[in-house]
Specification:
The protein is mainly β. It has no helices and eleven strands.
Length: 124
C-alpha cells in the first residue's frame, strides 16, 4: 500500500506562485511514474502533469505549459509541482497520483494510488 499526502495549497493572487508537494509513504515510489491532476468545481478531474520514474521525462497539459513544472526527489520519496503565473482558472483541488506499473502518461486509469487533494484558490 502507498499513502500519498499533498501539501502546499492555499489562497494566492492572480500572477502569484505556489509549490505543491506530494509525499509518499508505505512503499517507495522511486521506480514508478507519478502525476498531478486537478478538479475544479463542477468539472471533471483533468490531468495536469506527469513524470517518469527517474524524472528524466515529463509532460504538462497545454493549459499549464510554461507556467507549471513537475519534478521529483526520489531520495525523499516526494514529487513537486511548481506553479507560477497562476490564473483564476487554475482554482481547483489538486491531486497527486502514482502508478505501480511501468510506463507513464496522462490517463487517469494508469494511476493506482491517489492522495486526498489540496485546495488551490487563485483570486482575480
Amino acid at each position: 500500500q502507498v499513502q500519498l499526502v499533498e501539501s502546499g495549497g492555499g489562497l494566492v493572487q492572480h500572477g502569484g506562485s505556489l509549490r505543491l508537494s506530494c509525499a509518499a509513504s508505505g512503499r517507495t515510489v522511486s521506480s514508478y511514474a507519478m502525476a498531478w491532476f486537478r478538479q475544479a468545481p463542477g468539472k471533471e478531474r483533468e490531468w495536469v502533469a506527469a513524470i517518469n520514474w527517474s524524472g528524466g521525462s515529463t509532460g504538462h497539459a497545454d493549459s499549464v505549459k510554461g507556467r507549471f513544472t513537475i519534478s521529483r526527489d526520489n531520495a525523499k520519496n516526494t514529487m513537486y509541482l511548481q506553479m507560477n503565473s497562476l490564473k483564476p482558472e487554475d482554482t481547483a483541488i489538486y491531486y497527486c497520483a502514482t502508478s505501480m506499473t511501468p510506463g507513464w502518461g496522462s490517463p487517469q486509469s494508469r494511476y493506482d494510488y491517489w492522495g486526498q487533494g489540496t485546495q488551490v484558490t487563485v483570486s482575480s
